[in-house]
Design goal:
The protein has about 70 residues and is an alpha+beta fold. The protein has a domain of about 45 residues. About 25% of the residues lie in helices and about 15% in strands. The strands form two sheets. It has a two-stranded antiparallel ribbon. A two-stranded antiparallel ribbon has the order 3-4. A hairpin with a 5-residue loop joins strand 1 and strand 2. The longest helix is centred in the last third of the chain and has 19 residues. The radius of gyration is 14 Å and the shape is flat. It starts with about 20 loop residues before the first strand and ends with a helix.
Amino acid sequence: MKIKFTKTVDVPCSPWCGNCVEVCLDKTERQVCGLSGVYLDEVRGKLLKSLSCWNRLYLELVKEGNRDNG
């Protein structure tokens, strides 16, 4: 049986995962985004958001900007 549900998550407003609660470890201790299921890259000692997460964050910022201007 397949079940679909929506989850709202508070993610840091930056290109980095920061303290996002959706960062998980797989069996080999690699860090994975719990929302998109992709492995996260570490750049300059910080975890870089997945493209999917970054796109969703960008769209929410655009919506917020449109609410403020409209």
